[in-house]
């Protein structure tokens, strides 16, 4: 059988895993696609660099164009990262009729629709399972497993770094700064952790998942984002005492034909299956009208898990190629995008207030909630452990952002409230 | 666009769900397959029966052959159940070039290879996602999501009835008989619950999953089975005190090129993600060499969750039909089946003994384990709560069945052992 020749852009962590799987599982892979798979050419930054894997040096090049323009290569596997320059490589590869497998969430979140349109035009495949939640086949699940259902909610722990940090803070009662430092030392967090800890990485992944789940073109700017850098160990301790775990959740919801997508630290009821997803693991919870609650759990990053998804995509792309159906299976988003206006977005809130410790304060505060039609699920007043104020901890029922903004605005004019210490979304 | 005509065999719980989804989600489904989907003819036992759904009475027939021989029907959806007669219907439908979607685990576990061979011969599709774990797209995940990986272990809670019973026993400390009665009253268990509680239903599903995961033809007789009817509330109470939950687990394992598949009540470490899957929910944990630990969770039965999988299969089958690739995507098992011999199967054991309450007994017993090379992870001796014996609770390290059989044989000749009360597999 004539081998299928593959070009690889990038030989970092994931690229190395791809080479390992393609070489190590060659027998199984050939059985699945009907011919050998050969990695023909690999673009790297520096051909001289020492590597964890033996690769014939003839295969290496420092010029990505050499891979993209290679006449024998049918499929390009892009695991180099980057956005603008990488987009140029991908578009040129598609122009030349090459199929694409990519693990690049930034690329797909920012330029996915442009790339997929070009692919459709050129009848090429673009597969990107590894771009979200590493080894968990969540993109296939949304496209095929739930093709029959109408999805109403996707909640994801899709960033391992922040889940590691929050898990450690929760289990060991240590501060954000301490754990971040440790995560950086262990290689779980980057030297500049902004993209992870401020929620941007998760937001990109949620844009990809929401696009697939809601059949509409969700862009990064549609996702409201806040990160975990201001979460304190006290916040987590309050969460646990009330029966919640603090998680950085991406949440995409649909109500009728309107959607909303956000990423924020969220207090999740301990009984919810996503609350017990700990450490660097990822999980995506999906609720469909017919299927109900489902959850998909696994490693969200790392050499081999991510490479598993990349090579599974490669198998699919090669099978399509052999069946002559490349580029014919993708379904472009077919629904108009209608975002729920900010004010109408409703959820439950946790609010921690520091107040004067005197009579009538609680009455004043609950009166404000009543005035703006925010009903309360639980209210606890207790002495503050650290200073002479009292603390009031409130969990609301579903409340609109518009009404909660009014409540908070009103709080500012209230002398008895010394500080609105924390406000979090609550789920489950 | 010319509609795709579908024939339905059965209009029970799942069949009703299929009609609801096909009618209710018609707009989305058409967007996915490119033409309307029409349920043209439905075979039922009794056309006069009152139903939960309005169906044009012209569509109903009491003769399945009328559906199978219908010239305009391209796809048969089989949700009637049954085995031998149903196999005849399916084989005849394939003979006539019709594609099949089935939710029938019994059929697929017993005659899957015969049906899939006929399908390959006739270039027809046979999809059966709904046959295992209801709404969880685990079959797609094994076939496509993990096509690149070598799976070493599949552990499934794949029977909702028994999981409901064990969860209730565990959470409420009640007996098997009490919960079974309640489950029957609630409709979670059949009047004759044998197939569920004795593990046969789970064994059929594990045969299907192991066939896909290990690429070899696993038959029902390859699965060793024991059910939950002899699990006592005391057993569960011991399990919990030691940090385990009792679950009916299907376990398929591969060691090098040998496999073993079993279903048995198993004590699972509480920290394992599958230990917290409760009630009628199902979950399948999959370990791959590259991807590591993953788990897939959702409703394992019920009208709408199961119908979600059936209609997702219908979408896939229709898309293949339109792309002209029907029957070309299935990969037949390509590996020789080599079962690990019974004696070589190794796992951890929990053993509860009732013994004479006198000096030297523990030494005698631990000596027997040592003699047969079974090393112990923990040993607890305590007074028996209910009678004058003492209890000894032992958890072993991995031990071969051969050695454990010898240990148990030796126990019989030991006067100080009054009773080997319970023996369970331990996981995690």
From TrEMBL, chains A, B:
<feature type="domain" description="ACT">
    <location>
        <begin position="350"/>
        <end position="425"/>
    </location>
</feature>
<comment type="similarity">
    <text>Belongs to the homoserine dehydrogenase family.</text>
</comment>
<dbReference type="InterPro" id="IPR016204">
    <property type="entry name" value="HDH"/>
</dbReference>
<keyword id="KW-0560">Oxidoreductase</keyword>
<keyword id="KW-0028">Amino-acid biosynthesis</keyword>
<dbReference type="Pfam" id="PF00742">
    <property type="entry name" value="Homoserine_dh"/>
</dbReference>
<dbReference type="InterPro" id="IPR005106">
    <property type="entry name" value="Asp/hSer_DH_NAD-bd"/>
</dbReference>
<keyword id="KW-0521">NADP</keyword>
<keyword id="KW-0791">Threonine biosynthesis</keyword>
<dbReference type="InterPro" id="IPR002912">
    <property type="entry name" value="ACT_dom"/>
</dbReference>
<protein>
    <recommendedName>
        <fullName>Homoserine dehydrogenase</fullName>
        <ecNumber>1.1.1.3</ecNumber>
    </recommendedName>
</protein>
<comment type="pathway">
    <text>Amino-acid biosynthesis; L-threonine biosynthesis; L-threonine from L-aspartate: step 3/5.</text>
</comment>
<dbReference type="Pfam" id="PF01842">
    <property type="entry name" value="ACT"/>
</dbReference>
<dbReference type="InterPro" id="IPR036291">
    <property type="entry name" value="NAD(P)-bd_dom_sf"/>
</dbReference>
<dbReference type="InterPro" id="IPR045865">
    <property type="entry name" value="ACT-like_dom_sf"/>
</dbReference>
<dbReference type="Pfam" id="PF03447">
    <property type="entry name" value="NAD_binding_3"/>
</dbReference>
<dbReference type="InterPro" id="IPR001342">
    <property type="entry name" value="HDH_cat"/>
</dbReference>
<keyword id="KW-0486">Methionine biosynthesis</keyword>
<dbReference type="InterPro" id="IPR019811">
    <property type="entry name" value="HDH_CS"/>
</dbReference>
<comment type="pathway">
    <text>Amino-acid biosynthesis; L-methionine biosynthesis via de novo pathway; L-homoserine from L-aspartate: step 3/3.</text>
</comment>
């Amino acid at each position: 059988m004539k081998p299928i020749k593959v070009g690889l852009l990038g030989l970092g962590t994931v690229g190395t895993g791809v080479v390992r799987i393609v070489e190590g599982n060659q027998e199984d892979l050939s059985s699945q696609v009907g011919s050998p798979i050969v990695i023909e050419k690999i673009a790297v930054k520096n051909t001289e660099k020492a590597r964890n894997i033996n690769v014939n040096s003839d295969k290496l090049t420092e010029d990505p164009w050499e891979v993209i323009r290679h006449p024998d290569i049918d499929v390009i596997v892009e695991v180099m990262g980057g956005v603008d320059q990488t987009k140029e490589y991908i578009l040129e590869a598609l122009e030349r009729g090459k199929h694409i497998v990519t693990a690049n969430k930034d690329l797909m979140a920012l330029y996915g629709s442009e790339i997929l349109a070009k692919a459709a035009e050129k009848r090429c495949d673009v597969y990107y399972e590894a771009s979200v939640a590493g080894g968990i086949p969540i993109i296939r699940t949304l496209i095929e497993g739930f093709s029959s259902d109408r999805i109403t909610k996707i909640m994801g722990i899709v960033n391992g770094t922040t889940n590691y940090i929050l898990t450690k803070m929760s289990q060991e009662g240590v501060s954000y700064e301490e754990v971040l430092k440790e995560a950086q030392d262990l290689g779980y967090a980057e030297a500049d952790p902004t993209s992870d800890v401020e929620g941007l990485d998760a937001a990109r992944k949620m844009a990809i998942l929401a696009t697939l789940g809601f059949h509409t073109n969700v862009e990064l700017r549609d996702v409201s984002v806040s990160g975990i850098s201001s979460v304190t160990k006290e916040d987590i301790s309050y969460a646990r005492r009330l029966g919640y775990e603090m998680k950085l959740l991406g949440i995409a919801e649909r109500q009728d034909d309107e959607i909303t997508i956000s990423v924020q630290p969220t207090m999740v009821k301990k009984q919810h299956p996503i609350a017990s997803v700990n450490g660097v693991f990822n999980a995506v919870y999906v609720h469909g009208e017919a299927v109900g609650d489902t959850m998909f759990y696994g490693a969200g990053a790392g050499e081999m898990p991510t490479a598993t998804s990349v090579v599974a995509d490669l198998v699919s792309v090669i099978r399509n190629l052999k069946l002559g159906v490349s580029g014919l299976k993708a379904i472009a988003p077919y629904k108009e995008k209608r975002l729920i206006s900010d004010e109408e977005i409703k959820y439950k809130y946790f609010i921690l207030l520091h107040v004067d410790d005197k009579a009538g304060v609680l009455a004043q505060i609950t009166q404000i909630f009543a005035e703006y039609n925010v009903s309360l699920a639980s209210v606890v007043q207790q002495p503050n452990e650290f200073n002479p104020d009292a603390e009031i901890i409130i969990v609301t029922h579903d409340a609109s952002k518009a009404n909660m903004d009014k409540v908070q605005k009103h709080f500012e004019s209230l002398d008895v409230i010394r500080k609105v210490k924390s406000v979090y979304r609550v789920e489950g």
